TrEMBL record:
Organism domain of life: Bacteria
Identification of the protein by name: Transposase DDE domain-containing protein
Ranges for domain Transposase DDE: 4-92
Pfam families in the record: DDE_Tnp_1_3
Record InterPro entries: Tnp_DDE_dom
Protein backbone atom coordinates (compact mmCIF):
# COMPACT_ATOMS: atom_id res chain seq x y z
CA UNK A 1 0.00 0.00 0.00
CA UNK A 2 1.26 3.48 -0.84
CA UNK A 3 0.71 6.84 0.81
CA UNK A 4 0.38 10.36 -0.59
CA UNK A 5 1.29 13.53 1.24
CA UNK A 6 -0.78 16.56 0.35
CA UNK A 7 0.89 19.72 1.67
CA UNK A 8 0.12 23.43 1.84
CA UNK A 9 2.99 25.91 2.07
CA UNK A 10 3.14 29.70 2.36
CA UNK A 11 4.76 32.11 -0.11
CA UNK A 12 8.19 31.34 1.36
CA UNK A 13 7.78 27.56 1.10
CA UNK A 14 7.16 27.02 4.83
CA UNK A 15 4.73 24.25 5.76
CA UNK A 16 1.27 25.42 6.82
CA UNK A 17 -0.54 22.08 6.91
CA UNK A 18 -0.45 18.59 5.44
CA UNK A 19 -2.68 15.54 5.02
CA UNK A 20 -1.76 11.89 4.55
CA UNK A 21 -3.90 10.01 2.04
CA UNK A 22 -3.97 6.54 0.51
CA UNK A 23 -1.73 6.43 -2.57
CA UNK A 24 -4.53 5.42 -4.90
CA UNK A 25 -6.71 8.40 -3.87
CA UNK A 26 -7.19 11.40 -6.16
CA UNK A 27 -5.36 14.52 -4.90
CA UNK A 28 -8.47 16.69 -5.04
CA UNK A 29 -10.11 14.58 -2.31
CA UNK A 30 -7.77 15.96 0.35
CA UNK A 31 -7.76 19.64 -0.53
CA UNK A 32 -10.95 20.69 1.28
CA UNK A 33 -9.64 19.93 4.81
CA UNK A 34 -6.38 21.72 3.97
CA UNK A 35 -8.00 24.99 2.92
CA UNK A 36 -10.84 24.95 5.43
CA UNK A 37 -10.74 27.96 7.78
CA UNK A 38 -7.48 29.24 6.27
CA UNK A 39 -7.05 32.65 4.71
CA UNK A 40 -4.79 33.22 1.71
CA UNK A 41 -4.63 35.58 -1.26
CA UNK A 42 -3.90 32.95 -3.91
CA UNK A 43 -3.80 29.19 -4.32
CA UNK A 44 -1.23 27.75 -6.72
CA UNK A 45 -1.75 24.13 -7.69
CA UNK A 46 -1.24 21.80 -10.64
CA UNK A 47 -3.86 20.47 -13.05
CA UNK A 48 -4.87 17.70 -10.63
CA UNK A 49 -6.67 20.39 -8.61
CA UNK A 50 -8.65 21.80 -11.53
CA UNK A 51 -12.17 21.21 -10.21
CA UNK A 52 -15.16 23.52 -10.64
CA UNK A 53 -16.15 23.34 -6.97
CA UNK A 54 -12.64 24.37 -5.86
CA UNK A 55 -12.37 27.24 -8.35
CA UNK A 56 -15.81 28.49 -7.29
CA UNK A 57 -15.03 28.27 -3.57
CA UNK A 58 -11.73 30.10 -3.95
CA UNK A 59 -13.34 32.79 -6.09
CA UNK A 60 -16.11 33.29 -3.50
CA UNK A 61 -13.44 33.70 -0.81
CA UNK A 62 -11.69 36.35 -2.89
CA UNK A 63 -8.59 34.22 -3.46
CA UNK A 64 -6.79 34.23 -6.78
CA UNK A 65 -6.97 30.85 -8.52
CA UNK A 66 -3.66 29.89 -10.13
CA UNK A 67 -4.47 26.41 -11.42
CA UNK A 68 -3.92 25.58 -15.09
CA UNK A 69 -6.98 23.99 -16.68
CA UNK A 70 -6.91 20.31 -17.60
CA UNK A 71 -6.48 19.64 -21.31
CA UNK A 72 -9.90 17.96 -21.54
CA UNK A 73 -11.79 20.87 -19.92
CA UNK A 74 -14.55 22.03 -22.27
CA UNK A 75 -14.33 25.66 -21.20
CA UNK A 76 -10.67 26.55 -20.83
CA UNK A 77 -9.95 29.38 -18.41
CA UNK A 78 -6.92 31.60 -18.07
CA UNK A 79 -4.41 31.39 -15.23
CA UNK A 80 -1.51 33.64 -14.27
CA UNK A 81 1.45 31.87 -15.90
CA UNK A 82 4.02 34.16 -14.24
CA UNK A 83 2.58 33.49 -10.78
CA UNK A 84 2.33 29.76 -11.54
CA UNK A 85 6.14 29.66 -11.83
CA UNK A 86 6.24 29.98 -8.03
CA UNK A 87 4.57 26.58 -7.65
CA UNK A 88 8.07 25.12 -7.45
CA UNK A 89 8.02 26.08 -3.74
CA UNK A 90 5.72 23.15 -2.95
CA UNK A 91 7.89 20.82 -5.04
CA UNK A 92 11.01 22.06 -3.24
CA UNK A 93 9.35 21.38 0.11
CA UNK A 94 9.55 17.66 -0.62
Amino acid sequence: MTTKILAMVDALGNLIDFKLMPGQRNDICGVEPLIKEKEFDALLADKAFDADWLVEELTERGSKVVIPPRNNRKLQREHDKMMYCWRHLIENFF
